[in-house]
Amino acid sequence: KIRVPGSPAGDSVSTRAPATAEEEEVLDERMRMLCRKIDTDATGSISEWDLIEAVRTYPDVADLVVPGAGPSTLMRDGAALDAVGDAFEAIAGGKRRARYWEVAAHFRRAAAQRVANAPALRELWGLIDAEGSGQVSKLKLLRAVRSQPAVARLVLPAAPPGRPRSDEETFEAVKGAFERVAGGKRRFDYGDFEACFGAVQQAAEPVPDRPPDRRPSKRVLVIGPGFARDPRLGAAVEAAGFQTRWCWEGLPSPEAPDFDPRPHLPAIKAAIDDFEPDALACASAGGAYVAGLWAARLWRGPTVLINAHPSCARLPAG
Protein backbone atom coordinates (compact mmCIF):
# COMPACT_ATOMS: atom_id res chain seq x y z
CA LYS A 1 0.00 0.00 0.00
CA ILE A 2 1.13 3.59 -0.60
CA ARG A 3 -0.10 6.84 0.89
CA VAL A 4 -2.30 8.81 -1.50
CA PRO A 5 -1.19 12.46 -1.68
CA GLY A 6 -3.88 14.89 -0.62
CA SER A 7 -6.20 12.22 0.77
CA PRO A 8 -7.40 11.86 4.37
CA ALA A 9 -4.97 10.18 6.75
CA GLY A 10 -4.84 6.46 6.39
CA ASP A 11 -6.41 6.44 2.93
CA SER A 12 -4.53 4.17 0.60
CA VAL A 13 -4.67 2.54 -2.77
CA SER A 14 -3.41 -0.85 -3.82
CA THR A 15 -0.10 -1.00 -5.70
CA ARG A 16 -1.28 -4.06 -7.63
CA ALA A 17 -0.64 -4.42 -11.35
CA PRO A 18 -2.51 -2.20 -13.83
CA ALA A 19 -5.92 -3.26 -15.07
CA THR A 20 -5.99 -6.10 -17.57
CA ALA A 21 -7.05 -5.62 -21.17
CA GLU A 22 -10.47 -7.05 -20.34
CA GLU A 23 -10.84 -4.59 -17.47
CA GLU A 24 -9.73 -1.65 -19.59
CA GLU A 25 -12.24 -2.66 -22.26
CA VAL A 26 -15.14 -1.38 -20.15
CA LEU A 27 -13.48 2.04 -19.83
CA ASP A 28 -14.50 4.12 -22.85
CA GLU A 29 -13.19 7.64 -23.43
CA ARG A 30 -16.25 9.37 -21.96
CA MET A 31 -16.01 7.37 -18.74
CA ARG A 32 -12.26 7.91 -18.57
CA MET A 33 -12.80 11.69 -18.74
CA LEU A 34 -15.46 11.54 -16.02
CA CYS A 35 -13.19 9.49 -13.77
CA ARG A 36 -10.37 11.98 -14.23
CA LYS A 37 -12.78 14.77 -13.31
CA ILE A 38 -13.67 12.91 -10.10
CA ASP A 39 -10.06 11.95 -9.34
CA THR A 40 -8.77 15.44 -8.58
CA ASP A 41 -5.47 14.08 -7.19
CA ALA A 42 -4.80 12.08 -10.37
CA THR A 43 -4.03 8.91 -8.41
CA GLY A 44 -5.80 6.59 -10.83
CA SER A 45 -8.40 5.67 -8.23
CA ILE A 46 -11.42 7.28 -6.55
CA SER A 47 -12.46 7.48 -2.90
CA GLU A 48 -15.97 7.96 -1.56
CA TRP A 49 -15.10 11.54 -0.65
CA ASP A 50 -13.87 12.17 -4.21
CA LEU A 51 -17.21 10.93 -5.52
CA ILE A 52 -19.26 13.06 -3.11
CA GLU A 53 -17.29 16.19 -3.99
CA ALA A 54 -17.61 15.53 -7.71
CA VAL A 55 -21.36 14.97 -7.46
CA ARG A 56 -21.67 18.25 -5.57
CA THR A 57 -19.57 20.07 -8.15
CA TYR A 58 -20.35 18.61 -11.56
CA PRO A 59 -23.93 18.17 -12.86
CA ASP A 60 -22.88 15.46 -15.34
CA VAL A 61 -21.32 13.39 -12.53
CA ALA A 62 -24.38 13.96 -10.34
CA ASP A 63 -26.66 12.82 -13.16
CA LEU A 64 -24.59 9.66 -13.63
CA VAL A 65 -24.35 8.70 -9.96
CA VAL A 66 -27.75 9.88 -8.67
CA PRO A 67 -29.98 10.39 -11.72
CA GLY A 68 -32.38 13.26 -11.25
CA ALA A 69 -30.54 14.72 -8.24
CA GLY A 70 -28.49 17.75 -9.22
CA PRO A 71 -25.73 19.19 -7.04
CA SER A 72 -28.14 21.57 -5.29
CA THR A 73 -30.49 18.72 -4.39
CA LEU A 74 -27.63 16.70 -2.96
CA MET A 75 -26.73 19.51 -0.57
CA ARG A 76 -30.15 19.46 1.09
CA ASP A 77 -31.37 15.89 0.58
CA GLY A 78 -29.92 13.29 2.94
CA ALA A 79 -31.39 10.43 0.91
CA ALA A 80 -29.52 11.61 -2.19
CA LEU A 81 -26.29 11.80 -0.22
CA ASP A 82 -26.90 8.28 1.06
CA ALA A 83 -27.43 7.18 -2.54
CA VAL A 84 -23.92 8.41 -3.40
CA GLY A 85 -22.53 6.37 -0.52
CA ASP A 86 -24.47 3.31 -1.67
CA ALA A 87 -23.17 3.79 -5.21
CA PHE A 88 -19.58 3.95 -4.01
CA GLU A 89 -20.03 0.83 -1.89
CA ALA A 90 -21.38 -1.01 -4.92
CA ILE A 91 -18.48 0.22 -7.04
CA ALA A 92 -15.65 -0.45 -4.61
CA GLY A 93 -16.96 -3.69 -3.12
CA GLY A 94 -15.75 -2.90 0.39
CA LYS A 95 -12.45 -1.27 -0.59
CA ARG A 96 -11.62 2.32 0.35
CA ARG A 97 -10.79 3.30 -3.21
CA ALA A 98 -12.04 2.17 -6.61
CA ARG A 99 -10.09 2.13 -9.86
CA TYR A 100 -11.39 3.71 -13.04
CA TRP A 101 -12.37 0.44 -14.69
CA GLU A 102 -14.38 -0.55 -11.59
CA VAL A 103 -16.33 2.70 -11.83
CA ALA A 104 -16.98 2.10 -15.52
CA ALA A 105 -18.04 -1.51 -14.95
CA HIS A 106 -20.53 -0.45 -12.27
CA PHE A 107 -22.26 2.10 -14.46
CA ARG A 108 -22.31 -0.28 -17.41
CA ARG A 109 -24.18 -2.76 -15.20
CA ALA A 110 -26.50 0.03 -14.07
CA ALA A 111 -27.28 0.86 -17.69
CA ALA A 112 -28.11 -2.78 -18.38
CA GLN A 113 -30.36 -2.84 -15.32
CA ARG A 114 -32.09 0.28 -16.61
CA VAL A 115 -32.97 -1.53 -19.84
CA ALA A 116 -34.18 -4.60 -17.93
CA ASN A 117 -36.35 -2.42 -15.69
CA ALA A 118 -38.10 -0.63 -18.57
CA PRO A 119 -41.33 -2.71 -18.70
CA ALA A 120 -41.81 -2.64 -14.92
CA LEU A 121 -41.02 1.07 -14.83
CA ARG A 122 -43.64 1.78 -17.48
CA GLU A 123 -46.19 -0.13 -15.43
CA LEU A 124 -45.33 1.86 -12.31
CA TRP A 125 -45.55 5.09 -14.27
CA GLY A 126 -49.06 4.09 -15.33
CA LEU A 127 -50.03 3.65 -11.68
CA ILE A 128 -48.76 7.13 -10.86
CA ASP A 129 -50.04 8.93 -13.96
CA ALA A 130 -53.34 7.05 -14.03
CA GLU A 131 -55.16 9.61 -16.18
CA GLY A 132 -52.35 9.70 -18.73
CA SER A 133 -51.56 13.41 -18.64
CA GLY A 134 -47.83 12.77 -18.98
CA GLN A 135 -47.05 15.03 -16.02
CA VAL A 136 -46.83 14.25 -12.30
CA SER A 137 -47.18 16.80 -9.54
CA LYS A 138 -46.15 16.38 -5.93
CA LEU A 139 -49.78 15.78 -4.92
CA LYS A 140 -50.25 13.15 -7.63
CA LEU A 141 -47.12 11.32 -6.48
CA LEU A 142 -48.30 11.44 -2.87
CA ARG A 143 -51.68 9.97 -3.83
CA ALA A 144 -50.01 7.17 -5.79
CA VAL A 145 -47.70 6.33 -2.90
CA ARG A 146 -50.67 6.14 -0.53
CA SER A 147 -52.84 4.03 -2.82
CA GLN A 148 -50.34 1.85 -4.69
CA PRO A 149 -47.99 -0.33 -2.58
CA ALA A 150 -45.72 -0.99 -5.58
CA VAL A 151 -45.15 2.75 -6.03
CA ALA A 152 -44.50 3.18 -2.32
CA ARG A 153 -41.86 0.42 -2.39
CA LEU A 154 -40.07 2.18 -5.23
CA VAL A 155 -40.29 5.76 -4.01
CA LEU A 156 -40.05 5.55 -0.23
CA PRO A 157 -37.12 4.40 1.87
CA ALA A 158 -37.81 1.42 4.09
CA ALA A 159 -39.70 2.28 7.27
CA PRO A 160 -38.10 1.38 10.61
CA PRO A 161 -38.92 -2.24 11.52
CA GLY A 162 -42.03 -2.59 13.63
CA ARG A 163 -43.06 1.07 13.33
CA PRO A 164 -45.45 2.30 10.63
CA ARG A 165 -44.51 5.54 8.91
CA SER A 166 -46.64 8.49 10.02
CA ASP A 167 -48.53 10.67 7.53
CA GLU A 168 -46.04 13.48 8.09
CA GLU A 169 -43.06 11.17 7.54
CA THR A 170 -44.66 9.84 4.37
CA PHE A 171 -45.21 13.37 3.08
CA GLU A 172 -41.62 14.40 3.81
CA ALA A 173 -40.27 11.27 2.11
CA VAL A 174 -42.46 11.83 -0.96
CA LYS A 175 -41.43 15.49 -1.03
CA GLY A 176 -37.75 14.51 -1.06
CA ALA A 177 -38.33 11.93 -3.78
CA PHE A 178 -40.29 14.44 -5.87
CA GLU A 179 -37.48 16.98 -5.64
CA ARG A 180 -34.94 14.38 -6.75
CA VAL A 181 -37.03 13.43 -9.77
CA ALA A 182 -38.27 16.88 -10.78
CA GLY A 183 -34.96 18.68 -10.26
CA GLY A 184 -36.59 21.97 -9.28
CA LYS A 185 -39.56 21.76 -11.65
CA ARG A 186 -43.17 21.80 -10.44
CA ARG A 187 -43.96 18.61 -12.38
CA PHE A 188 -41.94 15.77 -13.85
CA ASP A 189 -42.48 13.58 -16.90
CA TYR A 190 -41.59 9.99 -17.72
CA GLY A 191 -38.10 10.95 -18.85
CA ASP A 192 -37.37 12.43 -15.43
CA PHE A 193 -38.91 9.41 -13.73
CA GLU A 194 -36.85 6.96 -15.79
CA ALA A 195 -33.65 8.91 -15.21
CA CYS A 196 -34.15 8.72 -11.46
CA PHE A 197 -35.49 5.19 -11.02
CA GLY A 198 -34.48 3.35 -14.18
CA ALA A 199 -31.45 1.67 -12.64
CA VAL A 200 -33.07 0.95 -9.28
CA GLN A 201 -33.44 -2.74 -8.48
CA GLN A 202 -37.17 -3.25 -8.20
CA ALA A 203 -38.31 -4.32 -4.76
CA ALA A 204 -39.94 -7.70 -4.65
CA GLU A 205 -43.49 -8.19 -3.54
CA PRO A 206 -43.54 -8.48 0.22
CA VAL A 207 -43.96 -12.00 1.48
CA PRO A 208 -47.29 -12.21 3.29
CA ASP A 209 -47.20 -13.10 6.93
CA ARG A 210 -47.51 -16.79 7.56
CA PRO A 211 -51.02 -17.58 8.78
CA PRO A 212 -51.21 -18.56 12.43
CA ASP A 213 -50.88 -22.26 13.19
CA ARG A 214 -54.33 -23.41 14.25
CA ARG A 215 -53.41 -27.05 14.71
CA PRO A 216 -53.15 -26.86 18.53
CA SER A 217 -56.82 -25.86 18.64
CA LYS A 218 -57.99 -28.71 16.38
CA ARG A 219 -59.02 -32.10 17.76
CA VAL A 220 -58.34 -35.34 15.88
CA LEU A 221 -59.79 -38.68 16.96
CA VAL A 222 -57.47 -41.47 15.82
CA ILE A 223 -58.97 -44.92 15.26
CA GLY A 224 -56.14 -47.07 16.54
CA PRO A 225 -56.36 -50.39 14.67
CA GLY A 226 -54.30 -50.09 11.50
CA PHE A 227 -51.48 -48.06 13.03
CA ALA A 228 -49.85 -51.05 14.72
CA ARG A 229 -48.07 -52.20 11.56
CA ASP A 230 -46.01 -49.02 11.32
CA PRO A 231 -45.48 -47.18 14.64
CA ARG A 232 -43.96 -44.28 12.70
CA LEU A 233 -47.43 -43.35 11.43
CA GLY A 234 -48.73 -42.94 14.96
CA ALA A 235 -45.65 -40.93 15.92
CA ALA A 236 -46.21 -38.63 12.93
CA VAL A 237 -49.81 -38.04 13.97
CA GLU A 238 -48.75 -37.21 17.52
CA ALA A 239 -45.99 -34.88 16.30
CA ALA A 240 -48.28 -32.92 13.97
CA GLY A 241 -49.37 -30.62 16.77
CA PHE A 242 -53.09 -31.41 16.94
CA GLN A 243 -55.02 -32.38 20.04
CA THR A 244 -55.31 -36.14 19.59
CA ARG A 245 -57.20 -38.94 21.27
CA TRP A 246 -56.69 -42.58 20.40
CA CYS A 247 -59.66 -44.89 20.16
CA TRP A 248 -58.27 -48.40 20.76
CA GLU A 249 -60.12 -50.02 23.60
CA GLY A 250 -62.39 -52.88 22.60
CA LEU A 251 -61.66 -52.55 18.88
CA PRO A 252 -60.34 -55.76 17.32
CA SER A 253 -58.13 -55.80 14.27
CA PRO A 254 -60.38 -55.51 11.22
CA GLU A 255 -58.07 -57.55 8.99
CA ALA A 256 -60.21 -60.70 9.01
CA PRO A 257 -61.82 -61.30 5.57
CA ASP A 258 -65.40 -61.28 6.88
CA PHE A 259 -64.90 -58.56 9.48
CA ASP A 260 -68.10 -56.74 10.46
CA PRO A 261 -67.44 -53.35 12.10
CA ARG A 262 -71.07 -52.70 13.07
CA PRO A 263 -70.95 -54.18 16.61
CA HIS A 264 -68.08 -51.84 17.46
CA LEU A 265 -69.43 -48.62 16.01
CA PRO A 266 -71.27 -47.54 19.21
CA ALA A 267 -67.94 -47.42 21.06
CA ILE A 268 -66.42 -45.19 18.39
CA LYS A 269 -69.57 -43.03 18.29
CA ALA A 270 -69.34 -42.59 22.06
CA ALA A 271 -65.73 -41.41 21.67
CA ILE A 272 -66.82 -39.00 18.94
CA ASP A 273 -69.58 -37.56 21.13
CA ASP A 274 -67.24 -37.20 24.09
CA PHE A 275 -64.21 -35.73 22.29
CA GLU A 276 -66.10 -33.77 19.59
CA PRO A 277 -63.26 -34.05 17.08
CA ASP A 278 -62.73 -31.77 14.10
CA ALA A 279 -61.52 -34.78 12.10
CA LEU A 280 -61.09 -38.55 12.25
CA ALA A 281 -57.86 -40.29 11.25
CA CYS A 282 -57.31 -43.92 10.39
CA ALA A 283 -54.66 -46.03 8.71
CA SER A 284 -54.82 -49.09 6.52
CA ALA A 285 -57.26 -51.71 7.87
CA GLY A 286 -58.68 -49.18 10.33
CA GLY A 287 -60.50 -47.72 7.36
CA ALA A 288 -63.04 -50.53 7.72
CA TYR A 289 -64.33 -48.78 10.84
CA VAL A 290 -64.62 -45.48 8.99
CA ALA A 291 -66.53 -47.16 6.16
CA GLY A 292 -68.91 -48.54 8.79
CA LEU A 293 -69.37 -45.08 10.34
CA TRP A 294 -70.13 -43.64 6.91
CA ALA A 295 -72.61 -46.37 6.07
CA ALA A 296 -74.44 -45.90 9.38
CA ARG A 297 -74.35 -42.12 8.97
CA LEU A 298 -72.57 -41.77 12.30
CA TRP A 299 -69.82 -39.55 10.86
CA ARG A 300 -69.80 -37.11 7.97
CA GLY A 301 -66.94 -34.85 9.03
CA PRO A 302 -63.40 -34.47 7.67
CA THR A 303 -61.52 -37.76 7.57
CA VAL A 304 -57.83 -38.50 7.04
CA LEU A 305 -57.22 -41.86 5.36
CA ILE A 306 -53.62 -43.11 5.44
CA ASN A 307 -53.03 -46.02 3.06
CA ALA A 308 -56.79 -46.18 2.58
CA HIS A 309 -58.58 -49.50 3.09
CA PRO A 310 -60.40 -50.90 0.00
CA SER A 311 -63.74 -50.37 1.74
CA CYS A 312 -63.02 -46.61 1.64
CA ALA A 313 -62.57 -46.53 -2.11
CA ARG A 314 -65.75 -44.46 -2.51
CA LEU A 315 -66.74 -41.47 -0.41
CA PRO A 316 -70.22 -41.53 1.14
CA ALA A 317 -72.99 -39.80 -0.77
CA GLY A 318 -74.14 -36.50 0.69
TrEMBL record:
Domain of life: Eukaryota
Region (Disordered): 1-24
InterPro entries linked: EF-hand-dom_pair, EF_Hand_1_Ca_BS
Keywords: Calcium
Protein name: Calmodulin
Natural source organism: Zooxanthella nutricula
